[in-house]
Amino acid sequence: MIITTTSIIEGKPVQEYLGIINAQSIIGANIFKDIFAGLRDVFGGRSKTYERVLEEAKEDALRELTQKAQAMGANGILAVDLDFETVGGSMLMVIATGTAVRI
What we know:
This protein has about 100 residues and is of the alpha+beta class.
């Protein structure tokens, strides 16, 4: 499965556009992670804890996006866009959107 943020893949023409697909991943960053992230706010620096949680949510969303594309008979996903949001305070959400194609 080829996944790209671009709308074309050089040297690989699109044979068929199968449709727009999306996937979401919402993940909680528990109270302990919130406490440690809060300390980072006070003292400065990067929050590796939240970075790991966001990376996990992104990978989950892309994995689900790939599964949806495969179920449609796609072998590529073009124009992938990732959006990151917070939900209800400490919940982190990643939304992945793209176009399922057959190359």
